[in-house]
Amino acid sequence: MSVKKISEDNEDIDLLELAITIWKNKLKIFIIMLLFIISATIASYKQINQKPYYTATTEIRQISTFDEFRYETFNFYLDRIKTEKSKVLLDTENNNQHNNNTIKLPTVVFSKKITSSYLLNLFVDKLDEGRIFRDAIKKFNLIDKNNYTDNQLYENNVTKLASSIKLLPPSKDAKGYNLNKWQIQFHTENKEGWQNIIRYIEKPINEEIRLYLKEVLEEFVSNEKKLKNHRIDDLDLKILSAIEVYDRKTLSRVAFLKEQAQIARKLGIKKNSLIESPTFDTDVGIITNIRIESPYYTRGYDMIEKEIELIQNREDKTLFIEELQNLEKAKEDLIKNKDIERFQNLINDTPIFNPSEFNAANISHLTTSFQTKKKESIIKPIFLAGLIGLILGIFYVLIESSIKLRLKNISS
To answer: Are 339 and 88 in contact (CB under 8 A)?
Structure first.
């Protein structure tokens, strides 16, 4: 008894006959399936025998509390002078409402306190630039330049490999506490090469950060010194201007007094016949009491000429310039102000100016963990290869049998 199925070309296919054909050619099918199994086994063992592939994870640690304490005096001084600056600005604003000649002394302010968090952020930013990783990859030959004839292709692959290095930020729990530290993560087959890179990069990065902070602080101090000198120059100009103003007012005053003395002589008024309470002219430092109803010449030429004589014979005219005293005091206070020098001494005492003692952060290379990538079992690919070989073997013998049958029918 046979089971029949109608195909698209309406020819009858005897399934029993197909089964018989497959059974007769079972050796061929077995050989084809065996070839697939052998090929898959060889490929799987090659993969197993390859170098292990690692996921390397390394922690970046902040400087210790003891190292951070070395910046404590520096940071304390910053807090103090920031408070003083706020007070000076407030006092200056209030005083300027009454006196436009108020002089504000320079106050040194550096915007960033040097803390372990600030230094760690600088360290991570430097790592994130990627340049230090590119240099290290070249230095330790993680990519062999001899394998490239095109230098640009080599540089591109170095950059690509450096870009694959990940910086993982600290994760936090539900309460906001850090569960770990910043981490460097990299996938590599060259375990020793990566360890060399991790050990290498810490020192040059710390030195770059140290030089950056040193340059910033030195430039800041230099600018503050220039600004202080400019303010002293401004005060010198204001002092000269105040003296010139006094001289002009004095010339004007003497001319006025000479005119009044001539009038008094012409009228024969020698003595002052008026009894008045004197007032003091703060602009030129002389006694005046001019009233509209009492012309100045009525004081008499004796007094007026004596006033002219006293004004012209003053040995130290600066004593009569009230504004000058304020300006000179402001200049003296500015020259004696040692904030800039103190600030410079403080930064000189920090590790920033001691290369052997400075660290922005530490790469914990000794605790680098290498997690080997899990290799897949060879059983699954071998089973799939055997199944594919079995199916292809069956198709092969069926097609071969069909071709032989057609050729036999044609010949008969």
So the answer is: no
